[in-house]
Sequence to fold (399 residues):
Amino acid sequence: MPLKGSTKLSSVPPQRRSEFLVFGGPAISEDEIAEVVATLRSGWIGTGPRVHRFQEDFRKYVGAHHAVALNSCTAALHLAMMAAGVGPGDEVITTPMTFCATANAIIHCGATPVFADCDRRTLNIDPEQLAEKITPRTRAILPVHFAGRPCDMASIMSISRERGLRVVEDCAHAIETQIGNRHVGTFGDFGCFSFYVTKNVTTGEGGMVVTNNQEGAGRIKILGLHGMSKDAWSRFGDEGYKHYEVVEVGFKYNMMDLQAAIGLRQLEKVERYWLRRQEIWERYQTAFADLPLATPLPPAPGTRHAYHLYTLILDIDKLKRSRDDVLNALARENIGTGVHYLALHTHPYYAKTYGLKQGDYPNAEYISQRTLSIPLSAKLTDEDVESVIAAVRRVLLGG
Fold:
């Protein structure tokens, strides 16, 4: 689907960009800036009315009964694990094709991350591999909806019900993702979302847990603010002072109104920005179809892709060069890139701590050696997109 105002690639592609195109730059407009200024002028910049409103707006957007805003998706995953009853001696099955926060949240609970290989084309966890990793110590499953493509939640939920396991969904890439008319994050016991600066809705730093479990939501809220029974807005609001009690040993994981101010305005534009990223994603699909690489699979029937990342899997045998060579060549073209991801079991900490080695997860390793992500943001202009396309083609075709 060509972008509005774009033209077909010419035989002589545009020259290298004069300015560096940052990977994952957020689309920030004057209304976000105005909301932050209004927050500063209000005198309430910590956890207060805007956080409460953002929680409610996000809860309605994804169709959950409860939502708790926190300062990161890492915090969301950690507290969701705790609320799911994960603790020392437990195992939690997840994918090695994810950011380290997914595994670290499990470790912070005193549990052990157990990896199940991903599918080489969807990049999501393979339910058959997952089922094979279940042991008597398995407490929960932590699927990651990679790049905005939903996992096979029907299979995962079937396995969880059959084996009596909890499910915490990592939805860091998947704010708009749906299966049927249902948002991901609402299939499992808890869904965890990210509002990091590169995400489809950003608060700079921030996260959210959604759940239909009232008791679990209440515990996450308490754990996210030192284990206190009341937050500052409840204590110092205009309804009179209220004492708090410390009912658990908690954490300093709360979101601020300064962050929520950005999120409130971002969430209003989530569908418009989704359409723009879809337009860019489809332009890339057309432009790269003839190159020595695998483009992302189209969205599965009956699902909605969030179009969070556009990941290329290079055919390094045909190219006769490494993925890192391509990354550096694109940097010289002034195109910012990302790598999503180096499989977790190849990182020194996880390999040493859990006795993991090359060959344990061949699909994740295959992807790790070949993947790169190119800019995909509602902020991109048509000219930006065409310059990315031209640079990729120039680097891969040797032009």
User: Anything to note?
Assistant: The radius of gyration is 22 Å.
